[in-house]
Specification:
Elements lengths: L7 E2 H11 L4 E4 L6 H12 L4 E4 L3 H15 L3 E5 L3 H15 L4 E7 L15 H5 L5 E4 L6 H13 L5 E7 H5 L1 E2 L16 H12 L4 E5 L6 H14 L3 E3 L14 E4 L6 H9 L2 E5 L22 E6 L13 E4 L2 H7 L12 H15 L13 H11 L5 E4 L4 H8 L8 E2 L9 H11 L5 E6 H4 L6 H7 L4 E6 L4 H10 L14 H7 L3 E5 L5 H10 L4 E6 L13
Parallel strand pairs: 2-3, 2-4, 4-5, 5-7, 6-7, 9-10, 9-12, 10-11, 12-13, 13-14, 15-16, 15-17, 17-18, 18-20, 19-20
Antiparallel strand pairs: 1-8
Helix pairs in contact: 1-2, 1-6, 3-4, 3-15, 9-11, 13-14
């Protein structure tokens, strides 16, 4: 005889379902629309089961949840209130979608009896997020809470991971009733077919200039180790797709650079010249393909093998010679069964590509006529001195070109950066990373415009004890837009100059450690002091606005 199910409040049923799916952290801005959830989180927090991180802006909360998903491979959880809370949080949903990150955004909703009247803060979340998230839904009855939440976890983690948005009507959360418990979600993973692996081996054996492109999300350490064994055994060059450099040790002699903004011209030329592209996980988006010119759509000039966990992605933009539906790590582990190519014909090709990368990622001598800090020297110092598991985060802006070019990533989940180019992402992501693993060094790079998207989150870092370091690159302008502006409309500066606060005084007003650095040679000591401060720290770098990229100046 089955045990009777005791009636509970809807918000408590929801939190119990989160606990059943091993959720230990939620990010939120509280709202009256989901008070029963906050009440249940009180008990979960007291029991040490779920930590609730309250941010000062819903956009920061959703970005933290997205970063959590990148770090753990499981959905980052965010709660926001209805209407304005949801619109603010949309930023993190867009990032999670384009970055293929598992995430669930729970949004308070008005009472069902008021729908259709444009009630207070009313939004149709299915319509709003329908094209922005992987799935957008609403729970229409208390009894279905475990079912819908379990499906949200499954959708967020299956195939190509992504964000799910779940609306929570007030009568569902405040109501009382019985709902059966849902088991912890298990995700199925596809493995490559033996015939596809055999065809890949034939294509590789016949190649003269192969190139591996690694990207995507959902990788495991075992999978990446298997990929490295395959690459080393066959002496293959490996390029990372945009902002996925942490998937392959950049110090390895087979790593040859990143495809995306700031790509090395020589690497771009190699992509055009390769006769076999083995693309594992990457969608080869507009940024990675340089506007679909390095790899043309719909039929690439290169022979292409495209591996992706989502069958709907294969053939959507590119028609590969060999499409393979498979979990990325399952595919990589299956490569252990392939015999290496004997005496590969491309060893010189690999060595030359590596030499080009080393030359491109080695900082040039500073220009004597430029004022302020040389950002290349700063990034190189951190690359040489930070621990292997240090996490580097950034948002969007031309300053990121220095970071991605001169920092050499070593391990998975050490680079948190938005492939959708979202400004403001890096600082909330760094806070989430430090709260997730306090023992790791976490450094955020942010431009002056990028940092000012969510500067108030310094208080979040202080409140919850997240002693990360944010490096604010201050050149007094929105550099990326200024660069495009000067190219299209020379000497007609419009809307790109920035008047900034005193960043040091600003940070200190929150209780954070803060310093200003105006010379490259002063950075190392300032960073050491920031690390030893024992609390959140900000270092402002004054840089020359003329140095718009590592290779270009404003004339």
């Amino acid at each position: 005889m089955s045990e009777s199910i005791q009636p509970r409040i809807g918000g408590h049923i929801l939190v119990d379902t989160l606990l059943a799916n091993a959720v230990d952290t939620v990010y939120c801005v509280p709202g009256e629309s989901y008070l029963p959830v906050l009440d249940a989180l009180h008990d979960a927090g007291a029991a040490g089961s779920i930590r609730t991180i309250v941010t000062r802006h819903e956009g920061a909360a959703s970005n933290m949840a997205e970063a959590h998903g990148k770090l753990t491979g499981r959905p980052g959880i965010c709660f926001v209130t209805r209407g304005p809370g949801a619109t603010h949080a949309a930023n993190g949903v867009h990032t999670a979608m384009q970055d293929s990150t598992p995430m669930i955004l729970f949004v308070g909703q008005i009472e069902g009896k008021f729908k259709g009247r444009e009630a207070f803060q009313e939004v149709d979340y299915r319509r709003m997020f329908g094209g922005l998230a992987k799935w957008a839904t609403e729970i229409d009855s208390l009894e279905r809470i475990p079912e819908i939440v379990a499906r949200a976890f499954s959708v967020a983690m299956s195939g190509r991971p992504g964000p799910v948005v779940v609306g929570l009507p007030e009568e569902v959360l405040f109501g009382t009733g019985s709902a059966p418990a849902a088991p912890q979600v298990r995700v199925a993973h596809a493995a490559p077919e033996p015939a596809a692996l055999a065809e890949l081996q034939t294509l590789l054996a016949g190649a003269a200039r192969p190139l591996v492109v690694v990207g995507g999300s959902g990788w495991t350490d075992d999978g990446l180790a298997a990929l490295k064994r395959f690459v080393v055994a066959n002496d293959l060059p490996v390029a990372a797709s945009f902002r996925r450099q942490d998937l392959f040790d950049n110090r390895d002699p087979h790593y040859v650079g990143m495809l995306g903004l700031g790509v090395s011209p020589k690497l771009a030329e190699r992509v055009r010249d390769t006769d076999l592209l083995l693309v594992i996980g990457s969608r080869l988006s507009e940024t990675v393909s340089n506007g679909y010119t390095l790899i043309e759509s719909p039929v690439p000039k290169q022979t292409m093998v495209h591996v992706h966990p989502d069958p709907q992605e294969l053939g959507r933009v590119y028609h590969a010679r060999l499409p393979i539906v498979a979990s990325l790590s399952r595919f990589a582990l299956a490569l252990d069964g392939l015999a290496p190519v004997a005496a590969p014909a491309w060893s010189a090709w690999t060595a030359a590509a590596r030499a080009d990368y080393v030359a491109h990622s080695t900082p040039p001598q500073p220009h004597a006529d430029l004022a302020g800090v040389d950002l290349a020297q700063v990034v190189a110092h951190l690359s040489d001195t930070l621990p292997e598991d240090a996490v580097i985060t950034n948002g969007a802006g031309n300053y990121t070109v220095w970071v991605h070019r001169f920092y050499r990533y070593r391990r998975r989940a050490t680079g948190l950066a938005p492939t959708n180019g979202a400004m403001g992402y890096g600082f909330p992501a760094a806070i989430a990373a430090k709260l997730r693993d306090p023992g790791r060094t976490v450094v955020c790079f942010a431009g002056d415009g990028c940092f000012m998207m969510y500067p108030q989150e310094l208080m979040t870092a202080m409140q919850y004890g997240a002693p990360m370091v944010v490096i604010v690159v201050n050149n007094g302008m929105l550099g990326t837009i200024r660069m495009h502006q000067e190219r299209e409309y020379p000497h007609r500066v419009s809307a790109t100059d920035l008047a900034n606060p005193d960043f040091v005084a600003f940070a200190r007003s929150f209780g954070a450690h803060a310093e200003r650095v105006e010379r490259s040679e002063d950075f190392a000591a300032a960073f050491a002091r920031a690390q030893s401060a024992g609390r959140a720290a900000l270092i402002e770098l004054r840089t020359d606005p003329r140095q718009i990229t590592p290779a270009a100046r404003l004339a």
